[in-house]
Amino acid sequence: xxxxxxxxxxxxxxxxxxxxxxxxxxxxxxxxxxxxxxxxxxxxxxxxxxxxxxxxxxxxxxxxxxxxxxxxxxxxxxxxxxxxxxxxxxxxxxxxxxxxxxxxxxxxxxxxxxxxxxxxxxxxxxxxxxxxxxxxxxxxxxxxxxxxxxxxxxxxxxxxxxxxxxxxxxxxxxxxxxxxxxxxxxxxxxxxxxxxxxxxxxxxxxxxxxxxxxxxxxxxxxxxxxxxxxxx
Length: 232
Fold this sequence. Notes:
Largest sheet: 5 strands, antiparallel
CATH class of the largest domain: Mainly Beta
Structural class: alpha+beta
Shape: elongated
Number of strands: 13
Order of helices and strands: EHHEEEEEEEEHHHEEHHEEH
CATH architecture of the largest domain: Sandwich
Number of helices: 8
Radius of gyration: 19 Å
Number of domains: 2
């Protein structure tokens, strides 16, 4: 990873956990100690089982969070973008990352080391309290997703992911602002590349989606949502 410099005060990511607390007086000193990195598309910067190197915050880009499943198969557990936090699973309770992460596109990262994060948590009560609420919310999201996926068939899981991508990343000219391979969609849905290809082909024939140069566009999001609404 290559180092660069970013300025938290001029950051436009209002949802960034650090940015939200930049108004706190003591935070001004801590943000000066962060480190920035750029990752090329496909580059892995967090390795499952490796020693924790603090928390990462995405300044700009897109990242997939991975977990190794049965027989060594990778499972995408989360997709992240500008302002999102990475590496919090296991932080404070484990010395090693419980997940891996790699860039989907060229990405700029802000890293706060273990020492810096511990110092922030010990000296800024408001930040620590909000971090506790953040953990609770993420746990709730994770549990709800596990429950939802367990009750869905494969077609419903693929549709659910397409709608998630639309909500998370938006679209331009009716095409999603993220380009995932069929394998990545399969890894996220917990199925196979072949099944994803067949389902996407079926959705296209039904006029629910379009595919342009491997990019996917949702033509009738309401109808897609109606197929899975009982699981929400």
